[in-house]
Amino acid sequence: MRVCKVCGAEVKRNFPTHAQGVRHRNAKRLTRWIADESISFAEMSRRLNVSRERVRQLAEQIPKAEKGRERQRKAALRRAQAAVTRPDRPGFPIVKELEARRIAWRPFRLGNTYQFSEKLLRLGSPPRLTCSLQRYCKKLEGYYNINKATNEVCDFYLFVGPAGVLIFPHEVRPRGQTTFLLNETRKAKGVPGARHDWKNYLNAWNLIEERLKQTRGKAS
Ligand SMILES: [Zn+2]
Q: Which of 11, 132, 137, 183 has the most CB within a 10 Å radius?
């Protein structure tokens, strides 16, 4: 007696006979559908004419099929990836640049849930840097503004805006609302305590690339 690799049932008679059984055939179809991530469990239940719970039970029995939880986690990850890369989100230009530089990214996973943040990314393969995604805007001629800086503790803080992407390591991140200049030839008049090093962080992708190199083999 052996266990069928497709449906997980014991093969009591010869295999061709077993393969014609309902359980084996359904398992085969389910395995195919589960691999095709566009088909929902609800749709599978309709096609097999059984309840959704039954589909879940059947999926649990199939040795090769992805289990419900894993499927759920992947679906949540895909939704978050789609949200991060929507053209109206700050993540859109960042992800394009990361992909051009072959830096692996994924949305940050929140705790032990199937939820992922759309405002935080994990970078590297394996993932080892956390980045926040935010915006800055143009204020007056030459001046830019960050409305609010995140409180999350990240390795890098990325701000997308009209002049490019500002990339700050944790130590030098802006805190709270702030106005700044990106043109070094102008003096930040009337902006007490304004920093003049902002342009050093404009499109400073090398900072992320260097940190990834330094932490290679040290997944956190
Ligand atoms: Zn079978």
A: 132
Q: What is the pTM of this model?
A: 0.69
Q: How far is the CA of 61 from the centre of ligand 1 (A)?
A: 11
**Ligand 1 centroid distance, CA of 30 (Å):** 12
41-54 pLDDT, tens digit each: 888 899 989 898 88
Structure-token pair, residue 96: 């394009």
Q: Are 154 and 130 in contact (CB under 8 A)?
A: yes
pLDDT at 162: 92
Mean pLDDT of 74-94: 87
The sign of the CA dihedral 67, 68, 69, 72 is: positive
**Can you give the pLDDT at residue 65?**
67
The structural domains of the chain, ordered by start, are 2-66 (no CATH), 84-214 (3.40.1350.10)
Cα–ligand 1 centroid distance for 49 (angstroms)? 20
What spacing in Å lies between the alpha carbon of 98 and ligand 1's midpoint? Answer: 44
